[in-house]
Each structure stands twice: as structure tokens, then as C-alpha cells.
UniProtKB/TrEMBL annotation:
<dbReference type="InterPro" id="IPR028973">
    <property type="entry name" value="PhnB-like"/>
</dbReference>
<feature type="domain" description="PhnB-like">
    <location>
        <begin position="3"/>
        <end position="118"/>
    </location>
</feature>
<dbReference type="Pfam" id="PF06983">
    <property type="entry name" value="3-dmu-9_3-mt"/>
</dbReference>
<dbReference type="InterPro" id="IPR009725">
    <property type="entry name" value="3_dmu_93_MTrfase"/>
</dbReference>
<protein>
    <submittedName>
        <fullName>VOC family protein</fullName>
    </submittedName>
</protein>
<dbReference type="InterPro" id="IPR029068">
    <property type="entry name" value="Glyas_Bleomycin-R_OHBP_Dase"/>
</dbReference>
Length: 157
């Protein structure tokens, strides 16, 4: 286990979520599936308690802690994409598997975890600053899934 690991709280679906992330994003892998050694408030002995996994190179732990705490947009995974095809692939996987669209490249998976599917070209435009950044930013503000061609056109003016 890595020294610093992100812990994501799930009701009872940590293993299903981890499997989805591993199937969807490169540089992802399943780790240990740890079962409860005894009964606990939200489960019983033998239930999946903790799932170790890596998603896009980031070490994570999924904890089946029950329904008390919910995910929100204060935490998100930002996935950098190279082109529209890659953007579409990740967006459609997250949204098409029971997730939901949001604004400006954000979406949520069916477990409520937020994802930013962010084309590299958008971040490059924002980093440049000035009028080019403003045009790209204004274009992004009208989108749900990022349209790479529209961002490129906005950058050019």
C-alpha cells in the first residue's frame, strides 16, 4: 500500500466501482479485496470492507462504510485526454454506466464520484492566459462534454 492513498467511501459497491475504474482507465489495477473479520454497523462478517485499487496511476482504497456519507464535487478525478476520441470514450463510459453529465467537462459516475474529462488543449489554452485563454474559457462555459474542435476554434479567435 502506498504511503499516501485516496480513500473513497461507498455504501456497498466499492468492489464494483473499482472494477469499473480498472476496466475504463489506463494505468489502473485491482489490488487486495479485504473482507470484514466481524460484524460492523453497516455489514456483517465476510462482507467486502475495503478494496485496494489504482485508477489512472493514483492509489486508492474503496471503503464500504455505509450510506452516511456521500460523494460531492469537492473531490474529483481529473483525466487528461489527448483528443476528442479519448474524451468521448471516457465521458461516455462514465455517463453511459449510470452516471450523469454536468458542466464544463464534469460528470459523475453512478456511485456519485465526480470526474473531469479534460482535453489537454483546454488546459494549455488556459495556461497561456490573455485573450486566447478567455476565448477558450468562454467556449468551455457553454459545454457539458468538452468539444475539442470548438476549443481549438476559440483559441484561434
Amino acid at each position: 500500500m502506498a504511503k499516501n492513498t485516496i480513500c473513497l467511501w461507498y455504501d456497498k459497491d466499492a468492489e464494483a466501482a473499482a472494477k469499473f475504474y480498472v476496466e475504463t482507465f489506463p494505468d489502473s489495477a485491482m489490488g487486495a479485496v479485504i473482507r470484514a473479520p466481524g460484524n460492523y454497523p453497516e455489514g456483517k462478517q465476510g462482507d467486502v470492507l475495503v478494496v485496494e485499487f489504482t485508477v489512472a496511476g493514483v492509489p486508492c482504497v474503496g471503503l464500504n462504510g455505509g450510506p452516511v456519507f456521500k460523494h460531492n464535487e469537492a473531490f474529483s478525478f481529473q483525466i487528461s485526454t489527448e483528443d476528442q476520441e479519448e474524451t468521448d470514450r471516457y465521458w461516455n463510459a462514465v455517463v453511459g454506466n449510470g452516471g450523469q453529465e454536468s458542466e464544463c467537462g464534469w460528470c459523475k459516475d453512478r456511485w456519485g464520484v465526480s470526474w473531469q474529462i479534460t482535453p489537454r488543449i483546454l488546459m494549455e489554452a488556459l495556461a497561456i492566459g490573455g485573450d486566447e485563454a478567455k476565448r477558450a474559457f468562454d467556449a468551455m462555459m457553454t459545454m457539458k462534454k468538452i468539444d475539442v474542435a470548438a476549443i481549438e476554434a476559440a483559441r484561434r479567435g
